[in-house]
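Sample pair:
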Amino acid sequence: MGITYITGEVEGPTGKDTVEFLIDSGATYSLLPFNIWQAIGLKPKRTVKFRLADGTPIKRGVSECYLILPQGEGHTPVILGEESDEALLGVVTLEILGLVFNPFSRTLQPMKMLLV
């Protein structure tokens, strides 16, 4: 699958910043790099143990922020990254915003809802 990026804004208690996210349909949570979450004033609410694709366990703080994308906006949990971590847009955020990633057109699209 190709690599796709999207630019969005994140808001926290002390500010707002622009972020270029890698859309990662294999990532559960979105991730903010250290300098971004520090700049908008996020603090860890809990620590979670994750496993990387190669099986390596890591621990990272988790918080939440307000995310604004061209396709929608809302509150989402985010992993608080370290200096070398890249911004990721994960599936939990996509689901919260009602979006799906189309790997063929490499675009975000509205989720098709079933009315019951």
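Strands lie at 5-12, 15-23, 30-32, 46-51, 57-69, 72-80, 88-89, 99-102, 107-110.
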